[in-house]
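Fill in residues.
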C-alpha cells in the first residue's frame, strides 16, 4: 500500500500540536485593514483551534491524519 500524501495547501495553512490539536490562522487579515479597529486586528493575530465540525476533514488532509 502506498504512503498517504499530504495536501500541500493544507500543510501551509494548518499545524498539528503535540497534543493533537489542529491550529489555524484567523480570517479577515489580508486587506481592507484601514477600516478595522486596532483591537480587532490585534486579536486576529493569534492562532486558534479548528472547529470540531471541520476537524476530521482537515486531519485527513495532513500527514498526521488518516
Amino acid at each position: 500500500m502506498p504512503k498517504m500524501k499530504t495536501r500541500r495547501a493544507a500543510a501551509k495553512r494548518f499545524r498539528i500540536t503535540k497534543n493533537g490539536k489542529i491550529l489555524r490562522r484567523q480570517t479577515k487579515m489580508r486587506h481592507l485593514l484601514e477600516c478595522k479597529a486596532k483591537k480587532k486586528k490585534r486579536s486576529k493575530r493569534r492562532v486558534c483551534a479548528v472547529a470540531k465540525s471541520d476537524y476530521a476533514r482537515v486531519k485527513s488532509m495532513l500527514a498526521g491524519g488518516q
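The two ends are 14 Å apart (CA to CA).
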